[in-house]
């Protein structure tokens, strides 16, 4: 069902999950201290070569946009293709937006932030999702969505303000679906740094709540 990017379950289309296929879950909630919108795709069995490559290229796009440094007052549309490039390289694409603004106790899809041509330029302090994907009709769907804060970047020149993204979603990606041979050293370095942040922020909270099974899963899922 995840082959449909905006699928809603119904009695007629629901079916039992299987470890022999991909599973996409788009999750979120509104809390006193913030709003979440996080999508992860997993496979509990043996993914096909196409599934693994497609997932890895979606992840590459997510990383490439998340670590991008760009001039202040840049339109989201100008940088959106960084999330698609790894897919475009092999003739793949996705048919939805790359991200949307996220409000606190307002709209989860909040105007006017995002990566479309009619969105406002990106400025420090804005929250947006970053969510490339790939969908094969009738077979499977992949999406990796994080919430990111636009922040000021530290550049070597130190001249005009530049911006970048700080990903605030702290959820590991599925190691079973990553083809490391496709990733650049910079992308692997980004992943390892991200996993260190997850361990530092989420690990102690799981231990505080005595969720030892979840803590063990987190440690395994965030190995370098």
TrEMBL record:
It comes from the Eukaryota. Residues 161-224 form the Peptidase M24 C-terminal domain. Keywords: Aminopeptidase, Hydrolase, Protease. SUPFAM superfamilies: Creatinase/aminopeptidase. InterPro entries: Creatinase/aminopeptidase-like, Pept_M24, Peptidase_M24_C, X-Pro_aminopeptidase_P. The keyword Hydrolase applies. GO terms for molecular function: aminopeptidase activity. Residues 1-150 form the Peptidase M24 domain. Belongs to the peptidase M24B family. This is XPP2 aminopeptidase. It comes from Setophaga kirtlandii (Kirtland's warbler).
